[in-house]
Design brief:
This protein is 51% helix and 15% strand. It has 387 residues and is of the alpha+beta class. The protein has three domains: 113 residues, Butyryl-Coa Dehydrogenase, subunit A, domain 1, CATH 1.10.540; 108 residues, Butyryl-CoA Dehydrogenase, subunit A, domain 2; 147 residues, Butyryl-CoA Dehydrogenase, subunit A, domain 3, CATH 1.20.140.10. The chain starts with 6 loop residues before the first helix and ends in an 8-residue tail after the last helix. Bound molecules: flavin-adenine dinucleotide.
């Protein structure tokens, strides 16, 4: 058993940390306030290879292993959760899914521009009446000659405002659940497709989450990803990796909250000395640090499992469940350490508190993660459970 990062992973970690410290951290408040990522920042991340992080060299990617990729997201999230999420959706949910399931033509057409950041990805599964229950999708795709005709609406499509390539899940056969779902690559300028309303949100304000409309939108049949009816399987596999990714974002975010709390506790004085001398404050720090350390091992272990090719659905759900709760608890405790200052926009902990709340909801709520974990455990005992 070896708990150490290898030399290459340590080198990547330093490189990611340096870039994030210099280029992302100074922009975090602006990204939150302006509610968008500066285009130049995305271009700089592309130059570093971050937008082709999971793609092989053949498609101009840098082919990070899952552990190194988690280190990247962890570092990004230490500075800005919105930036980390934007990059995570582009890589893990979209370009990796095309890499894993696409035809040679699809990979040849889409992956290189995605690695260069010329095209940004968006993953559109959720609908107004189909969130946790993916089998309730209402968006339909009807085959018509050489096309599929899409009708329906998606909500909460992260990156919707900036994306060029939309991975859209729609029902092709309403009589077969969940196998009647198929996945399509939809380009932004496709007639009948419109990127609509941007959701104003409590946090993660740099992440643009939009409603998408499909009105007799004709998508060429060659844009079907995988086979007809494979959409559910494709989405679930993508979400396994997305949950691992999100747990790394939780880890980086929680660490940033802790560091902000420690710094404040050392600098801020009450009753004639730093509040860090008070045991109540030390307890906040010790509890958060211990949870973060436990999370770190869970995230890296799950990433290692992914790298070995093992099934890691249960582990990814555990990491996502625990990670999002630890991040939220860390932000809550460290905001308390800040006292009234923590409630002011001037302090980063206020933004973290708002940002982290979304992590317990997106990519499957905590309740759904608990279901996935229990289903996997009980299946081993011969009991089949339903959500
Ligand atoms: C910031 C943000 C970004 C997002 N980005 C994307 C994206 O890029 N692409 C995308 O497709 N979606 C995205 N989503 C949508 C997200 O995946 C859904 O919000 C999530 O899956 C929950 O669905 P819902 O909001 O419809 O809630 P619902 O499914 O309606 O759930 C409401 C409540 O009921 C609970 N619940 C539901 N079913 C059960 C059950 N069987 N057992 C116990 N409790 C249950 C839920 O846990 C929740 O507490 C995003 C959401 C957010 C907040």
């Amino acid at each position: 058993m070896d708990f150490a990062l290898n030399e290459e992973q340590r080198m990547f970690q330093k490189m990611f940390r340096d870039f994030v410290t210099n280029e992302v951290a100074p922009l975090a408040e602006e990204i939150d306030g302006e509610e968008k990522l500066p285009r130049e920042l995305l271009e700089k991340t592309a130059m570093q290879g971050f937008l082709g992080a999971l793609l092989p060299e053949e498609f101009e990617g840098v082919a990070l292993d899952a552990i190194s990729y988690c280190l990247l997201l962890e570092e990004l999230a230490r500075a800005c959760t919105s930036t980390a999420m934007t990059i995570s959706v582009h890589n893990g949910l979209v370009s990796k899914t095309i890499l894993d399931n696409g035809s040679d033509e699809q990979k040849g057409k889409y992956l290189e521009p995605m690695a260069f950041g010329e095209k940004i990805g968006c993953f559109a599964l959720t609908e107004p009446a189909a969130g946790s229950d993916v089998t309730a999708l209402a968006t339909r795709a009807r085959r018509d000659g050489g096309d599929y005709v899409l009708n329906g609406c998606k909500t909460w499509a992260s990156n919707g405002g900036i994306a060029d390539i939309f991975l859209v899940f729609a029902i092709t056969d309403p009589d077969v659940e969940p196998k009647g779902i198929s996945a399509f690559i939809v380009e932004r300028d496709t007639p009948g497709f419109k990127v609509g309303y941007r959701e104003p949100t409590m946090g993660l304000r740099g992440l643009t989450c939009n409603t998408l409309y499909f009105d007799d939108c004709r998508v060429p049949a060659e844009n079907l990803l995988g086979q007809e009816g494979e959409g559910f399987k494709i989405a679930m596999r993508a979400l396994d990796f997305a949950r691992l990714s999100l747990s790394a974002i939780c880890l980086g975010g929680a660490q940033a909250a802790l560091e902000a709390g420690i710094q404040f506790a050392i600098e801020h004085e009450e009753f004639g000395g730093p509040i860090a001398l008070k045991q109540a404050i030390q307890n906040f720090i010790a509890d958060a640090a211990s949870e973060i350390q436990a999370l770190r091992y869970l995230v890296y272990h799950t990433a290692w499992l992914a790298d070995t090719g093992a099934t890691y659905t249960r582990d990814a759900s555990m990491a996502k469940l625990i990670g999002s709760e630890i991040a939220m608890r860390a932000a809550n405790k460290m905001l308390q350490v800040h006292g009234g200052f923590g409630y002011m926009k001037e302090y980063a902990i206020e933004r973290m508190y708002r940002d982290f709340r979304a992590l317990q909801i997106m990519e499957g709520t905590s309740e759904i993660q608990r279901f996935i974990i229990a289903r996997d455990i009980l299946k081993e005992k011969g009991l089949v459970i339903k959500p």
